[in-house]
């Protein structure tokens, strides 16, 4: 078999695993479950030994990532939950809705995400903070919730 064939299969595996990860996440599967499934697809196509590659490459990298960013994820999740429980997200959503209008939920989410990001809040925390707010805005505007990640990403991505 020529040397290029395994490399092409590996690239196909990466693209398929990325598509699978996006599909599973879009369907509501937690990323902690979808990522290992997608990585197995990439490993099968790369023709690497499955178990050693999974236990010696993927799992340590995933554990390192989670360990490095756990405090950020935890505080962001707590802050987002506090915004929901205290009614702060509904209050902000009502204020923004009264100022901009209920049909401008996408623009309101993008603008608010940008203000929060440029105000100095970490990008990871912005996702947890903005989700309850965006969920309430989208509910009022009757817009599908699947668009929330894209609007938060658009507002919080740095411009060059």
UniProtKB/TrEMBL annotation:
Q: Kindly name one Pfam family recorded for this protein.
A: GntP_permease
Which keywords label this protein?
Answer: Membrane, Transmembrane, Transmembrane helix
Gene Ontology MF terms:
gluconate transmembrane transporter activity
The superkingdom of the source organism is: Bacteria
InterPro entries, per this entry?
Answer: Glcn_transporter
**Would the keyword 4Fe-4S be found if you checked this record's keyword annotation?**
no
Q: Indicate the transmembrane segments per the record.
A: 7-26, 32-51, 63-85, 105-131
Record keyword Mitochondrion present: no
Among the entry's GO cellular component annotations, what is one?
A: plasma membrane
Name the UniProt record assigns to this protein: GntP family permease
């Amino acid at each position: 078999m020529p040397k290029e064939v395994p490399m092409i299969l590996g690239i196909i595996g990466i693209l398929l695993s990325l598509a699978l990860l996006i599909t599973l996440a879009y369907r509501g599967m937690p990323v902690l479950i979808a990522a290992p499934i997608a990585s197995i697809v990439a490993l099968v196509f790369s023709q690497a030994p499955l178990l050693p590659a999974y236990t010696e490459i993927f799992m340590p990298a995933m554990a390192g990532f989670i360990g490095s960013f756990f405090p950020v994820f935890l505080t962001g999740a707590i802050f987002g939950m506090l915004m929901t429980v205290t009614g702060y997200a509904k209050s902000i959503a009502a204020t923004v809705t009264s100022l901009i209008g209920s049909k401008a939920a996408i623009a309101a989410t993008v603008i608010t995400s940008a203000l929060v990001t440029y105000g100095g809040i970490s990008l990871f925390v912005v996702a947890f903070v903005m989700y309850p707010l965006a969920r309430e805005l989208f509910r009022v505007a009757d817009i599908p919730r699947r668009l929330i990640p894209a609007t938060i990403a658009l507002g919080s991505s740095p411009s060059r």
